[in-house]
């Protein structure tokens, strides 16, 4: 009788431990499937993880990200809402929801989410960059540039931030600043074809045709179809 009781206890403990760990295992499997772009399998894994642990905020967050990749933006927001409800200080979920809101052109909502993410972690460069993009869509270039200044201050090699700042500096009339930022992008990443095109078009508009055409030819040599078309249009 004692052995039977002990055996029953052992089975109970084993089952309990499995249920405690299985949600994590499903989540790990989802991460692998997500990395391989097998989104259906990843979502199935996450459904299982949530079945084991209905309060698994990371599982809801990852589900949200995957739905965003699949173009299911409304579903993505609902899932990220759940993750944030479970964990109001969830940096990744807030930043991610901001990205999805910007995708559906809810720029004000996106800015609010990015601002909250910045409050939670003020030294992360990406929320500043993301907020700058949202602000720029509202034509608030001055504030967008300030956000990019912050983003670059925390990541001096953030090429996308330099590129965006160059574009909006040019629109704002800061020709010298735009040129300097485009050149910085090329210095950091010589394969960044869009930076050659951006610098070239900026210089061309300011009467510097010869160096602009040389830049366009360089971008064309690096495989840019747009640069090749601009060479034909502007440089012959």
Distinct helical segment count: 13
Count the E strands.
0
The overall average pLDDT, rounded, is: 92
End-to-end separation in angstroms reads 96 Å
Largest sheet: none
Specify the helix fraction band: over 70%
Radius of gyration: 24 Å
Oligomer: single chain
CATH architectural type of the domain at 177-236 = Alpha Horseshoe
CATH topology of the domain at 177-236: Serine Threonine Protein Phosphatase 5, Tetratricopeptide repeat
Q: What coarse outline follows from CA principal-axis ratios?
A: elongated
Element order, helices and strands?
HHHHHHHHHHHHH
Percentage of β-strand residues: under 5%
What structural category arises from helix and sheet content? mainly alpha
Regions with little confidence, pLDDT below 50 for 5+ residues: 1-5, 9-19
CATH class of the domain at 177-236: Mainly Alpha
Per CATH, the superfamily of the domain at 177-236 is Tetratricopeptide repeat domain
Overall description:
This protein has 236 residues and is mainly alpha-helical. It has helices spanning 2-35, 39-52, 57-69, 73-86, 91-103, 107-120, 125-137, 141-154, 159-171, 175-188, 193-205, 209-221, 225-234. Helix 2 (39-52) packs antiparallel against helix 3 (57-69). The termini are far apart. The model is unreliable at 1-5 and 9-19 (pLDDT under 50).
Summary of the model, kept short:
The protein is mainly α and 236 residues long. Helix content is 81%, strand content 0%. The chain has 13 helices and no strands.
Features:
0% strand, disordered N terminus, mainly alpha, single chain, Serine Threonine Protein Phosphatase 5, Tetratricopeptide repeat, 236 residues
């Amino acid at each position: 009788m004692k052995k039977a009781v002990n055996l029953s206890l052992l089975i109970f403990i084993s089952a309990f431990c499995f249920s405690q760990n299985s949600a994590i295992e499903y989540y790990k499997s989802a991460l692998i499937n997500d990395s391989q772009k097998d989104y259906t399998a990843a979502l199935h894994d996450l459904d299982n993880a949530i079945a084991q642990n209905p309060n698994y905020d990371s599982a809801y967050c990852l589900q949200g990200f995957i739905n965003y990749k699949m173009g299911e933006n409304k579903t993505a927001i609902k899932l990220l809402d759940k993750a944030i409800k479970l964990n109001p200080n969830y940096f990744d979920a807030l930043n991610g929801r901001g990205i999805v809101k910007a995708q559906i052109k809810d720029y004000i909502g996106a800015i609010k989410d990015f601002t909250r993410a910045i409050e939670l972690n003020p030294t992360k460069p990406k929320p500043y960059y993301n907020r700058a993009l949202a602000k720029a869509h509202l034509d608030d270039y001055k504030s967008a540039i300030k956000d990019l200044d912050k983003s670059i201050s925390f990541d001096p090699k953030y090429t996308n931030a330099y590129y965006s700042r160059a574009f909006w500096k040019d629109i704002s009339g800061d020709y010298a600043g735009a040129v300097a930022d485009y050149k910085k992008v090329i210095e950091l990443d010589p394969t960044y074809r869009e930076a050659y095109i951006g610098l070239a078009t900026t210089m061309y508009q300011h009467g510097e045709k010869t160096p602009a055409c040389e830049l366009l030819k360089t971008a064309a040599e690096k495989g840019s179809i747009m640069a090749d078309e601009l060479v034909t249009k502007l440089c012959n």
